[in-house]
Amino acid sequence: RYQDTGEDWPVEDGYGALVAHHARGLAVTLRTPVTRVAWGGTGVRITTSRGTIAARAAIITVSTGVLAADTITYDPPLPDWKREAIAAVPLGRANKVAFAVPGDALGVSEPTAITVRVAGSTMIVRLHPFGRDLADCYLAGPICRDLEAAGEDEMVETCREALVSAFGSDLREKMGAVAATRWGHEPTVLGAYAAARPGQAHRRSDLAVPLADRLYFAGEATHPVFFSTCHGAHLSGIAAVESMHGRR
């Protein structure tokens, strides 16, 4: 069901920079976690770390990982059919470990992507992305889940040894600074991309169904063909806003 636009590419300055640029000029408040959403009665009251917000309606865009974890209390609770839809489209596991590596240490000078064996599985490694002296390791699936659970140090060292095995022992002392993600342990996300369970892809549409014309839902997990992407999340947000205004 996924529709590939052929234009879903990495961003040199990071996807976060693209999103921030797109939202420039908007009144966005960061680092303000929500703990409670009361949607009974005639409106919505949202409790945050900085106080309570009252509104006629709200669009919920947190991941299915956060929805399933119940870190936000809904009053009244979300109906069973909505919770079943959340459980049907859980977040998978995907992480990156990037090493600073001088260009001559890798034997290539142009941006290249290869696969490397790691702990009985494989990972994709991007060499010199955007011409930078980096080796960017991409982990997904069970191996990613296991290494993430083992901790960042274990994940980094496993990737380091995999690269040393692929390029030779001389590489080890040339490898510099490291940056790593652990999205499954990031409390505002609790996973990577949403992946429907077998036979449950149709539940994405249930995720997007609003509740009582007060709670609307958006995010990549709700999009029927652009799931797992930033543009899918963006388009689902536009659809939620249009649906909200159409019901007013």
UniProtKB/TrEMBL annotation:
Signal peptide: none annotated. GO terms for biological process: auxin biosynthetic process. It comes from the Bacteria. Keywords: Auxin biosynthesis. The keyword NADP does not apply. Belongs to the tryptophan 2-monooxygenase family. This is Tryptophan 2-monooxygenase. It comes from uncultured Thermomicrobiales bacterium.
